[in-house]
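Progress note, project year one: complex with zinc ion.
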Amino acid sequence: MRRTGDLKLIQELNRSIIFDTIRHYGPISRSEIAKRNKLSPTTVTSAVSELIRDSFVCEVGTGESNGGRKPILVQFSPDSRFLIGISISGSKITIAEMNLEAAVKRKEVHSVKPYQGESVLAYLLDIIAQFLRGAASLDTCMGISIVTQGIVDSVHGVIRYNPKLRLQNAPVKEMIEQRFQLKTWLDNDTNAYLLAEKTIGDFSHYQNMLYVTIGDGLGASILMNGAIYRGFKGGAGEFGHTTIDRAGVRCDCGNVGCLENYVSWPTIYSKLVSSLAKGKTSRISDLVEQDVGRITPAVFRQALAEQDPLSVSILEETASYLASGLVNLIHLFNPEVIILGGEIAFENELLIAKVKDYVMEYAHGILTEELEIRPNSLGENVEVAGAAAVLLQDTFQFSL
Ligand SMILES: [Zn+2]
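Model obtained:
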């Protein structure tokens, strides 16, 4: 029995290597795939037949001959199937239909307010049901992949703890699979963004990196020697709940002085609103026509781009707190690159520049020598691309 298991494992591994080669180098001939990976022609032929049968790849004409018959070329067919990617943050649910390269075909954003706890889940099911009605046919749907903040048990598909949405031990995977009969994945959002940058973004060649999300909350994901470090219960990377002030602000998690409360959007927002209430002048007031309810991260970034002094000073304070946390992470993990993502970091060159300055000043020189601090490469679709990456990685086992 053991030998059969080994054989099946090797076949699956070969299939994923072959698929990865076609994805990267197609159109490509079967003999070229064999040569590149030092695999036997029969192994390649049988794996390619399976991939064609499952419509993940297709034959596309012929290549140059080396004297014999012209070889038939095969290539990846990213539009042969689709998947549903969902991101649930503290403020919104984003749902998208994507192809096998995580290209977005259709996308909707729904505000999550005023839902909390069980009602968030009921609302999520309604959103999925309505969105699926817009799909041509579910026969070619690979499944549904969901990413969210907090501690997630990705093996069992359970949200263990999400203080923002007041969810504990929510069996999301089981609930969705029962309702829609579609295979479902669930993972922590920041882990998913890191996976997306590694598999479909610009960061494929890094083996040690950190992804830090600055948005409604603050989270981190750790890639260590090419594998995501999840910790014992899946809670590794809860960067936002590291303590920086024992006498500080009370956090949603019950503790006091968590870093998240000095760095995330709700904090920036309340600083802006209280400064405006005290009569400080700011470009923000004009941008939202005096309606503070309309201040969003995008408005804040716009004010920064126009060098609004109030916004710049709040950003500098935020960057300084964030950098203190990053200095700790750098000393713990010695990363090659730190990717800054989330709504606050999106297209925010000033934040990245300020954080870099502080980090270079305070972290140990040897650890910052070739350290890069960069924005995410997947832009504003990173949330749903993260969800797609979780499904694609689990299905195809792309090399990390
Ligand atoms: Zn906390």
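The chain has 14 helices and 16 strands.
The chain has a mean pLDDT of 93.
No further modelling is planned for this target in the current period.
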